[in-house]
Amino acid sequence: MADTKNYYTLLQNAETTGRQNIALLNNSLSELNEELQFFNQDEKCYFNYLSLYVTAYKGDYPNSIDNLNQYLDSCPDHRSQLRGKKHMANLQVIAGDYEDAIINLNDAIDLSANVNDPFLLPQVYTVASIVYRLIHQDELSLKYAELLINGKYANDYKCYGGSFKFRLFLRQNKVFDDTEMSEYISLCEEVGLTLVSLFLQLDWYRYVVVNYDDKNSITTELNNLIKLSKDIDGTQFKNIKVYYHAVLSQMYLKSGQPKQAKAIAKKVISENVSIGESEQLLLALQVLIDLNLNENIEIDAYRYLHQK
Questions:
Q1: C-alpha separations of 46 from 11, 83, 120, 156 in Å
Q2: Number of H-type helices and E-type strands within the chain
Q3: Rounded CA separation 164/199 (Å)
Q4: Confidence of residue 277 (pLDDT cuts 50, 70, 90)
Q5: d(Cα 90, Cα 13) in Å, to the nearest integer?
Q6: pLDDT of residue 10
Q7: How far is CA 182 from CA 103, 112, 198, 210, 215, in A?
Q8: Contacts 24+ apart (CB under 8 A), 148-151
Q9: How far is CA 61 from the centre of its chain?
C-alpha cells in the first residue's frame, strides 16, 4: 500500500500526463480507482475532480457544470475549491456563460492567494488568459499569458502562454514575427501539447489565411487544413473538433465552395449542442448568414442572424 503522500503525487502525475493525452489520464484513474478505499478525503476529492475533467473533455458541458457544482458542495477544502472554480470558469466561458465564468475565475484567483501550491497557480493563470481572451479583455489575457511565459514554470506552461499570446495577436491582426509563433508551435509539440498547437494553427487559418486574395493560395491552404483532420481527431477533444469544422466551413466559403461550406456549418450547429453558445457556433452561423445573403435568401439569413 502506498502512503498518503504517494497517492497525491500519483494524482498529480496523472493530471500532468492527462494534459498531453486524455486516454493516459483515464487509464491512470482506472488503476487508482482500485485503491480508492485507501485515499483520504482530500485525495478522493482530487480523484473526483480528475474524473470530472475527463467527462468534460468529451464535450457535455451542461452536465459537467452540474457535476462540478456537486463536487464543490462536497469538497470544501481550499485546493478542491480552487480546482473546481477554475475548471468551472473554463467550461462556462467556452459555453458562452461569461458572467458566471468571471465570478468563478475571480473566486479562483482569490483562492490562489490562500493556497500555496506552485502546481495549481499556473493552472489559474492558464484559465485566466483563456477567459479574458474569450470575453475580449485582451490586456488582461495577455498579462496572464506573459506570467506563464516569464514565470519559472515547466515548458508546458510556456507553451500555453505563447499560444495564448499569439492567438490574441492573430485576432487583433497585429504585426508580429512569424518565427516566434512557429517556435511556440514547435515547443507545444515537443512537450506533447498537440492540442494547444492545433488551436493556434486553426486561428492562423481563421484570421490570416481566410483573408488571402490569391485563389491558388487559398486552395493550397484549404488542402493543408483538411490534412489536419487526423491530428484533430487524435486529440479526442470535442471542443477543438467543432472549432475545426467551423474554421473549415469558413475556408470552404472563401474558396468558392458554398455547398461544402453550408454542410459543414450546419454540422457545427449540430455538434455544438452539448457545448453551448461557443465561438465556433457563432463562426458557423456567420458562414450561413453570408451564404444566404450571397444567394439572396434573406429570410434564412435573418433566421441565422437571430440565433447569434
A1: 7, 8, 12, 21
A2: 17, 0
A3: 9
A4: confident
A5: 21
A6: 95
A7: 34, 32, 12, 19, 24
A8: 148/122, 151/122, 151/125
A9: 12
**CA-to-CA distance for 234 and 232, rounded, in angstroms?**
5
pLDDT at 6: 86
Query: What type of residue is 226?
Result: I
DSSP string of 106-144? HHHHHHHHH---TTTHHHHHHHHHHHHHHTT-HHHHHHH
Closest-CA residue to 2 (of 26, 27, 30, 36): 36
Q: How many residues does the chain have?
A: 308
In whole angstroms, give the CA distance from residue 268 to residue 281: 7
pTM for this structure? 0.92
The continuous run of DSSP H or E covering 168 comes out as: helix 155-171
C-alpha cell at 288: 450561413
Closest CA to 70 of 57, 93, 51, 96: 51
Phi-psi group of 192: left, alpha or beta (phi > 0 → left; psi -120 to 50 → alpha; rest → beta): left
CA angle 131, 206, 139 (to 5 degrees): 35
If one counts every other C-beta atom within 10 angstroms of the C-beta of residue 16, the result is 14
Q: Mean of the pLDDT values across residues 243-262?
A: 97
Please report the pLDDT score of residue 303 as a whole number: 64
pLDDT at 4: 46
